[in-house]
Structure formats: structure tokens, C-alpha cells
Write a structure and sequence with these properties.
The protein is of the alpha+beta class. The chain has four domains: 4-105, no CATH class; 122-199; 239-412, Intergrase catalytic core (hpI Integrase, Chain A, Orthogonal Bundle), CATH 1.10.443; 442-473. The chain is built from 15 helices and ten strands. The protein has helices spanning 55-71, 84-93, 122-134, 140-162, 167-177, 180-199, 245-258, 263-272, 276-280, 325-331, 353-361, 370-376, 389-401, 405-412, 438-472; strands at residues 4-5, 21-25, 28-33, 42-46, 103-105, 287-288, 293-296, 299-301, 306-308, 316-319. A hairpin with a 2-residue loop joins strand 2 (21-25) and strand 3 (28-33). The protein is elongated. The protein starts with a strand and ends with a helix.
Length: 473
């Protein structure tokens, strides 16, 4: 890859003699200073610019600034050496940070040979690998939380403890200071990072080859606290993990009286069985009034403040019959622009499921919780996490209303078998039911008609008997 950003180019695309270039070099953006500036060869320095959309603009700004500094002689430390401290200060002015070391290339030794390229550090290899993964198959949340978070910190701390180029030391330190599951994943990903670097001819060998294979993960029994907000559908059909529809109404009535700003968000979750992030990530363009349905197309991660695809990474359709309960709920809200969020917090910002979790459970001393307070009042008998609004909807539709399980799965997508279609197709004539199921009402009506017929027949028989008695007299 040979993208360059500079103010003046020759017909070959290279910088003119005496020009600074900020370009992609060895899978990262580097500042390359002209050979004429240093008689020992061309100097290349990391810039800290990430290869994301729009990087060229920042690179261009940095190039112009470095060119001015170079021409004014401000990058010389006064003894003919490159002033690395001054360069670092410039990066900070642009909000950049890089692990800096002088890299001189293309200088020729006394025997006319190019010197060997300096090897990259483990963290530099990890940075390259993260950018590679980010631009391919890595979810944005996994990128930030795991690769740039948990894994990066583990690698950095291990290297600080045992030193660079000490893979066995890193392996042992991780086993002593991290859980085995994390260690196995870190070492596996490090090996993959080195293999990618080998293909790019950045390193000669994979220092972590096979190190993760013999690590045994000690599995402990999973303990789930009642207060845990766990996005797990493993027990989605367990009726014990759901509220009854009468209990749903008790919860909604209490919320309307005490936490009215949460009412629409909570009611929407009960009426659709969607995941918390899907409710928070709903935009007005996803509400299809003309088709009488909603499209769940994204989820919002409040921790990172980003939207991402749904858990199974494709959109699904949820029915919204005209003038039905769900339709009326959304119609009651102020309609926004297509990309506006439907449900917002009390302050008008995006919904945070963490804050709602606190409202739902409460704090031990400072704040009452919705469910804990209703339990104290004797109106509810059990605590279930906010995520279980999903369990409640699914169980109500299947076990009370009598909707076929595969239809409910199309609406909520709780099966492990994921359809590969972009949109799930189901019979749009089937719609969710709430409260007393229609089948129960019909059965009650039919039973009432039978009882009426029986009463009429009884009266007729009594009349016949009376007439027969009068005739015999």
C-alpha cells in the first residue's frame, strides 16, 4: 500500500527531494523525512493516526506542519540530530500519541548492502493486527472492550513485567495473573497477530505459536444473581423466568405513577419482547406505518455509545396492527426525524440500560426500586431482571395466547438456529395478543350459548310436563 500525503509530488507519486511525507508504511501511518535531512538515511516515525475513514485529512494537516518545522530547523536538536521530543510535542498538539523510536531505512552499509529492518515490538504487532481485524470481521464492541481493552492491557502489563521478546515469560506471567480463559484467548490471538505480521514480512517467526493449545480452562459453576441483567436466551421458554400479564399491568401501573418517563420504553419492551439494546437503538425510520410493522435493525451499546447490528446481525420484522396497543403507544410519542431515536431518557438523551437497571432494582439505601418496592407491597412475589421483559412476552404469546413457537421466534429471534435471510418472513396475518387470549374468549362465549340452550330445554321440558299433568286431570 503506497498512499502518500504531501504538498508536492513528482510524476512517480513520490515526494520531491526535501519534502516530508505522511503515508502508510508497514500497515501503519508514518512520517517519512527526506534523506537529505539526515546523512544516515531516511527517518520514519509512527504518527498514531489510525487507518479509519478520514485519516488522510489528519495526515495532510500533520504533513504541512512537519514541513514547516523542518524548513525552520526546529526538528534539529542543535547537534545535528533529530529532535524526537519536539516531534512528540507536535503529535500531542494534534491529539495524537505514538510509541516513538527512530527508524532509518534505505541507508547503505560500507559493503553496499541494506541493513536489516528493525523488528516491530509485540504491541506494535498487536496494533497492526487489531486494525486488520477491525476492518474485517470484528464487532465494534468486541474491538473496544476485548481487543483494545482486556487483551491489550494483559499483553502490556505482561511485557512490562517480564520484558520484550520473552514469550515464555509473557505466557507464565499471564497464567499467574489472569484467568485461564482470558490467557488462552490472548495467546491464541497473539499467535494470529504474529502470523499476519509474518505474511507481511514484518517479523521472521511466530513467537507465540502453539502456546495456547495446552491451557486448560477451569470451569466453575455459573452463579447468577437476581440483580444480574444478563442477555441470555437459554432459559427464554422457562415460565418461572417470566411475569404473568396481570403482573405486567401491576408493574406498568406503578411505573406510570412513580417513574412516568420510563413508561413508554418499558411498555414497548413488554409488547415486543425485544432486547434492551434494540429498544434503545430504535429509530423512527424503523417504524413502518404503511406496512403496519417495526423493523429491528440495530442495537445501541450505552457503554461505548455506538450502534451495532442486532445480536444475530440481520434485521427482523415485528407486526404492529393498526390501532392496536403497540401502534397506539408509538403514535402517542412525538414523531421525530427518520434517524432520531424513538425512546429517550428523562434528559432527552439516549437510553442507558444501566440507569434503568438501577431504577428497576433500586439502591440499598438511597433509591427504591420498581420491583423491590412492589415485592415489599405484596403485589409481586419474585424479582426478575429487566431483560426478562423478553421472557415475559415470549411465554405469554406461546403459553397463554397460543401463537405457534416458530412464529414467536420469527418476531423475537430467540432460537440458536439463525436464518441467513436479511428479513425474516412469516404470516403477517398472525399478530401478537395481549391480556385474555381470543381463543379463551371464544370458548367462554360458546360455553355460555350451550348453557343458555340447556336452560331453554329445561324450561320447555317443565312446560311439557305441566301440560301433561293438566291433561291427565
Amino acid at each position: 500500500m503506497s498512499i502518500m500525503v504531501n504538498s508536492s509530488k513528482t510524476p512517480t507519486g513520490k515526494a520531491k527531494k526535501g519534502q516530508v511525507a505522511v503515508r502508510v508504511d508497514s500497515c501503519s501511518v508514518k512520517a517519512c523525512f527526506p534523506r537529505s535531512y539526515c546523512n544516515k538515511g531516511q527517518i520514519k516515525l509512527a504518527t498514531g493516526i489510525s487507518l479509519v475513514d478520514g485519516w488522510e485529512s489528519k495526515a495532510s494537516q500533520l504533513q504541512r506542519r512537519l514541513q514547516i518545522e523542518l524548513e525552520d530547523g526546529k526538528l534539529d536538536d542543535g547537534e545535528g540530530n533529530f529532535d524526537l521530543g519536539r516531534y512528540n510535542d507536535i503529535l500531542k498538539e494534534y491529539g495524537l500519541q505514538a510509541r516513538l523510536r527512530l527508524v532509518k531505512s534505505e541507508s547503505v552499509t560500507s559493503d553496499g548492502q541494506l541493513p536489516p529492518k528493525p523488528e516491530l515490538s509485540t504491541l506494535e504487532i498487536w496494533d497492526i493486527y487489531c486494525e486488520y481485524k477491525k476492518n474485517r470481521d470484528l464487532a465494534i464492541t468486541t474491538y473496544h472492550q476485548e481487543f483494545r481493552g482486556v487483551y491489550y492491557r494483559a499483553i502490556k502489563q505482561a511485557i512490562e513485567a517480564v520484558g520484550e521478546n520473552n514469550p515464555l515469560g509473557v505466557h507464565n506471567w499471564l497464567l499467574e495473573n489472569r484467568n485461564h480463559k482470558t490467557v488462552k484467548e490472548v495467546l491464541s490471538q497473539l499467535s494470529k497477530a504474529y502470523r499476519i505480521a509474518m505474511k507481511q514480512k514484518l517479523v521472521p517467526t511466530d513467537l507465540y505459536d502453539g502456546m495456547s493449545e495446552n491451557i486448560q480452562i477451569k470451569r466453575k459453576p455459573k452463579v447468577i444473581n437476581q440483580s444480574d441483567d444478563i442477555e441470555n436466551d437459554a432459559d427464554i421458554l422457562d415460565g418461572r423466568r417470566a411475569y404473568t400479564w396481570d403482573e405486567v399491568q401491576i408493574i406498568l401501573d406503578y411505573v406510570e405513577m412513580n417513574y412516568s418517563h420510563w413508561l413508554n420504553y418499558l411498555k414497548f419492551k413488554f409488547l415486543t419482547g425485544c432486547r434492551p439494546g434494540e429498544a434503545a437503538g430504535l429509530w423512527w425510520r424503523d417504524v413502518k406505518w404503511e406496512h403496519e410493522n417495526i423493523v429491528f435493525d440495530r442495537s445501541y451499546d450505552y457503554r461505548l455509545g455506538v450502534h451495532k447490528p442486532t445480536k444475530n446481525e440481520h434485521a427482523r420484522i415485528f407486526p404492529m396492527p393498526k390501532y392496536g396497543e403497540l401502534w397506539n403507544l408509538l403514535k402517542s410519542l412525538p414523531q421525530g426525524e427518520p434517524n432520531d431515536t424513538v425512546f429517550k431518557s428523562k434528559s432527552g438523551k439516549k437510553i442507558s440500560s444501566h440507569i434503568f437497571q438501577t431504577t428497576w432494582l433500586g439502591r440499598e439505601k438511597s433509591q427504591k426500586g420498581i420491583i423491590t418496592e412492589l415485592i415489599k407491597q405484596g403485589k409481586l412475589t419474585k424479582y426478575l431482571p429487566p431483560y426478562n421483559t423478553r421472557h415475559t412476552f415470549i411465554n405469554h404469546q406461546i403459553n397463554v395466547i397460543g401463537v405457534a413457537p416458530h412464529v414467536v421466534n420469527d418476531w423475537c429471534e430467540h432460537s440458536e438456529k439463525v436464518s441467513k435471510q436479511c428479513y425474516r418472513q412469516t404470516d403477517t396475518r398472525i399478530t401478537p395478543g395481549y391480556g385474555i387470549p381470543a381463543t379463551t374468549t371464544q370458548q367462554a362465549q360458546q360455553q355460555s350459548e350451550i348453557d343458555l340452550l340447556r336452560e331453554q330445554m329445561k324450561q320447555q321440558q317443565e312446560l311439557i310436563n305441566k301440560l301433561l299433568q293438566d291433561r291427565d286431570k
